[in-house]
Amino acid sequence: MVETTGPEKNYGSQFGISKLCAVIILAIFVISLPASAQEYRSGWDIVEGGTSSDLFSVQAQDDEIWAFGENGTIIMSTDGGLNWQNYESSISSNLSISDSGFGAFIAAGTDGTVIIKSDSTSPWREISVEVGDGFISGISLTGNSTAVAVGNNGNIWTYDVQTWSNISVGEGDLLDVSFLDSDKGIAVGELGTILFSDDGGGSWDYRDAPTEASNSRIIDVEFFSDIRAYAITDNGEVLKSSRELTTAVGFLWNMQYFESEGGSSNLGVELTSIEIATTNKFLLSGADGYLSMSKDGGNIVNRQIIPVGNSTSFNDIAMIDGFNGVAVGSSGSLLLTERSGEDEQIGFEVMDFSEFGNFVDYSKGMLIDGLFATMNIVIFGIFLGFFLGISLSMMKTSPTTLKEIAQKRSPALIRIFGIVFLVIGIVLLRHLMPIFENLGLDGWEYIYAPIGIINPDGITGDLQFENFLFLILGVSLSLLGMLLISGDGTYKKSTYALGGREINWNPWGVRPLNFIATIYTDIFRNTPLIVQFLFIHFGVQIGALIGDPGAEMLEGSNGLITSFLRDDILSNRACVSAIFALGLNSGAYQCETIRGAISAIPSGQMEAGRSIGLNYMQTMRLIIMPQAIRICIPPMGNEMVNLVLNSSLAMVIGYSELTRKAKLINAVTFQVFWSYGMVLISYFIVTWTLALFLRYLENKTRIPGLGISGGN
Amino acid sequence: MSRVLSIKDMHKTYAGGVHAVRGVSFDVKEGESVAIIGSSGSGKSTVLRCINRLIEPTEGEVRLRGDLINTPNTDINDVRSRIGMVFQSFELFAHLRVIDNVTLGLRYVKGMSKKEAEREALEVLEKVDMLDRKDAFPGNLSGGQKQRVAIARALAMKPEVMLFDEPTSALDPELIGSVLKTIRGLADDGMTMVVVTHEISFARDVADRVIYMDQGIIAETGASSIIESPKTERLKRFLSSITEDD
Predict the structure, then answer these.
(1) Of A404, A602, A622, which has the smallest distance from its Cβ to B104's Cβ?
(2) What span, in angstroms and rounded, lies between the C-alpha atoms of A15 and A23?
(3) Closest C-alpha among A113, A144, A141 to residue A126
(4) Total domain count for chain B?
(5) Quick check: helix, strand or coil at residue B237?
(6) Rounded average pLDDT over A110-130
(7) Fewer CB within 10 A of the terminal residue: chain A, N end or C end?
(8) A10 touching B, CB under 8 A?
(9) Sequence ranges of the domains in chain A
């Protein structure tokens, strides 16, 4: 009876703990779910313009904003676009194009109607140009009473001293023109035409469009500054010209490829205009309710949410400054933004960080991200540390001494080995001599020599780890060689009398594997972890040494695990460094923990294993280790919890784990107590779950009838 | 009868300088059971451990079927698999079930398959009367049961000689009987064995020959009858001290 109920009872309690773990994990997921479902609202607001006519064009300059539309509609605002008033004009044509600059505004219709307003006090006056059967499709001011217009069949009209003069530069229709100042201007047109003038429009030179756009209709161009000009085509392409070394803007044009469109050069929408806010920030308008913005010169173009229906066709955008702007479109649509039209996270604007609920809403998503980042380095760190710990502890407990190794060979052979080792050691040390001399060190400064020989040329040179290896090998092989040569076949310890005391000198008792492992653990246990983080990340740059080649090796594989390894672990240099710093450090401590557990196994177990004929490694693997690991689960739990907590140091190398996220949250909200308090709770949940799991593991692996335990 | 074990002039000095064994020589013939008796610290356990080199003898020769086995070049694992050893404190592998304790050597030293090894193991477990507890963990066994499993573990390797290192010293008096019965059964089956023991009656009844050790040397040796009629004063004193204890 006892035997049948015993195990069941045991199983029941274990199941209880695993159930608890499952519930906790589930709870964490449930908590994290709302964080991923973020809602946004449009960054544009509708304003009433007082007209239902289509608006084609808009210009902003100083305090004035003017918008132009069908049948001569003109409206204006002097308060940044909030209130608009109608301007009665005698014009009845559609005013489809406009420009501003030099304190003046100009607007035009395709039929040649042109009106100009030279400064803020003067009224609009008509300066229409005769275009016959043709049309004008672009106009740009070159001064407060001079302008250049472009139109059909390569026609270019320049307005100066109250008169229009006309030249023609080719066959194709020109579609837009933009002047940076009174001299430099760019005109664009169909079939990829790009023209450049640096004499105020008197003469024009052809420039090459990118081959991809050689058949496109380039409909809008903006000559923004000495270093940047943009143009768009009506089928959704953006062309960019930058100053490159000695080449001025406007000579070389490149297609913009959009990362946000999977590397395509086509946005897949019908564009109507481009408006440049800053060198790298521009907004695009288009048909079917299209408004978008890029903050990085076009790599990422984000389509924006609009507060009106998608049937609205947006015709033009005018930016008052880097953030405030107006967009106009069909049926008198008039939108205003204070944030370049960027979508707003709902509640962001009204979010008041002095209210705890709002604060938590804002920060939980970042904390969850940080938590996952922490988990990444912790899990890989634990694996690396455990592997190192097991290997090092086996090396540390290995009983093989030099004497045992030497005794199995004849003394003559040992002497020959000694000579060979000594020669190799001396050769290696001689190789290092010039490097040492070049370091220019004196006296005690030589304690820093190991760092010097690894990187003799400093930041401009490569790391030469082989030098360090040569140093260690050179010194130890020389010493070992001398020892082996001195061997007399008995390999006994020698005793010397020194100052009346006996000194035992027993180099033959040295255990080589133990020696190597001791050097490793001594280095890692006697230096601070934070310095190891900094040294491994910035000094060794292990991300470049191991992470990058690793990521390259996994290039192109699509497996769930391999692509995770490549994209989330190996490509992130800080992540690789953090894993190695944590793993190498933890390995040194885990080694001592496991070594302690190994020493706790009665020596009789080793004797029993050996007595049935198992060799040393088999006995370690089959008998000692399985029992030692069980013993060291509680202290290893300590080690792992320490590792989780130590992972917070990864913030010093810029890895955005939990603690760093707290710092960022604090930087936004200024809620010091809440920010760091939430992180405390997050860490507690992680380590506590880990502790529960280890407790479960301890129960699960307990050997029936062995050891004193507080539990069942 | 051929000599299975032959020990000649064995010395052992421990690292601390204790000279535990000072020139011990004896032979063990095929099928013979030899009991080594003596007070604590007389070096009898050291002699036993030096035979399968769990302790390295400082000087002297140990031969197994005529082959010198205490040289650096001896395949010690092979030698040990031919010599079974039973420890005072059982030394069962606590994390393994009884059956796995017994099959471990068969699988990893003799290279048997798991199935084959289990068949052999069941046989020896039956011999020591532990078949019904084959799936128990050592922690759930009594001392006597543990020692019988330990004997089975050593027996499974089909050793040429068995070494018992005070097999009953750690047992409660009422459990000693079952272990002694098992060992007696082995002796009756003709197993060659060396038993270091405090059980004078066992030495007298089972052993073909008794070796009395004192201060690292063999003080007296002979047929089991020497227990009834000791020749030396030292053995006389030792025997009387033991009977007084009882």
Answers:
(1) A622
(2) 12
(3) A113
(4) 1
(5) helix
(6) 86
(7) N
(8) no
(9) 17-39+356-400+525-541+568-705, 44-345, 401-510
The identity of residue B225, as a single letter, is S
Q: A576-600 as b/e, with b when 16 or more CB fall inside 10 Å?
A: bbbbbbbbbbbbbbbbbbbbebbee
Q: Please name the member of B81, B87, B137 whose beta carbon is closest to the beta carbon of A604.
A: B87
Whether A372 and A634 have beta carbons less than 8 Å apart is answered as no
Would you say residue A515 has pLDDT above 60?
A: yes
DSSP A235: T
Query: How confident is residue A280, by pLDDT bands cut at 50, 70 and 90?
Result: confident
Q: Which of A158, A116, A117, A118 is nearest to A136 (CA)?
A: A158
A608 interface with B at CB cutoff 8 Å:
yes
Cα–Cα distance, B203 to B184 (Å, whole number): 10
Residues of chain B contacting residue A611, judged by C-beta atoms under 8 Å apart: 52, 54, 80, 83-85, 87, 154
Q: What is the CATH number of the domain that holds B151?
A: 3.40.50.300
- Note down the domain range covering B204: 3-245
Length of chain A as a residue count: 712
Q: Exposure of A495 by Cβ count < 10 A (0-12 exposed, 13-18 middle, 19+ buried)? A: exposed
Q: Does residue B236 contact residue B37 with C-beta atoms inside 8 Å?
A: no
Beta strand A325-329 pairing with A494-498: unpaired
Closest-CA residue in chain A for B164?
Answer: A611
Which residue in this structure is represented by tokens 């409909």? Answer: A219
Does the pLDDT at position A488 exceed 80? no
Instruction: Calculate how close chain A gets to B52, using CA atoms only, in Å.
Output: 7
Q: Which residues of B touch A (CB under 8 A)?
A: 49, 52, 54, 72-73, 77-78, 80-81, 83-85, 87, 89, 91-95, 104-105, 108-109, 137-141, 150, 153-154, 157
> Residue A698 — very low, low, confident or very high, per pLDDT cuts 50/70/90?
confident
Residues 6+ apart with CB under 8 A from A239: A209, A210, A213, A218, A230, A231, A232, A233, A253, A254, A255, A256
Residues in chain B: 246
Unique residue bearing structure tokens 């090396």: A395
The reply to whether A704 touches chain B by the CB within 8 Å rule is: yes
Concatenated DSSP letters for B98-113?
HHHHHHHHHHHTS---
Q: How many CB pairs under 8 A join A and B?
A: 85
- Give the single-character DSSP code of A621: I
HSE-up (13 A, CA, CB side) for residue A223 = 30
**Which amino acid appears at position A158 of this protein?**
T
What are the structure tokens assigned to A589, written together? 């401590």
Rounded to the nearest 10°, the torsion over CA A670, A676, A682, A683 is: 150
Give DSSP secondary structure letters for A374-430.
HHHHHHHHHHHHHHHHHHHHHHHH----HHHHHHTS-HHHHHHHHHHHHHHHHHHHH
**Helix residue spans in A80-224 (DSSP H):** none
Contact A630 B95 (CB under 8 A): yes
Chain A closest CA to B78's CA: distance in Å? 6
A84, A341, B230 from A326: Cα distances, Å: 12, 9, 121
Contact indicator for A98, A106 with CB cutoff of 8 Å? yes
CATH code assigned to A44-345: 2.130.10.10
What's the CATH number of domain A17-39+356-400+525-541+568-705, 3.40.190.10, 1.10.3720.10, 3.40.50.2000, 2.60.120.260?
1.10.3720.10
What is the ipTM score, two decimals?
0.92
pLDDT for B244 equals 55
Tell how strand B83-86 and strand B161-165 pair up. Answer: parallel
Q: What is the pLDDT of residues B14-57, one digit of tens each?
A: 877 889 999 999 999 999 999 999 988 899 999 999 998 888 89
Say whether A612 and B105 touch across the interface (CB within 8 A): yes
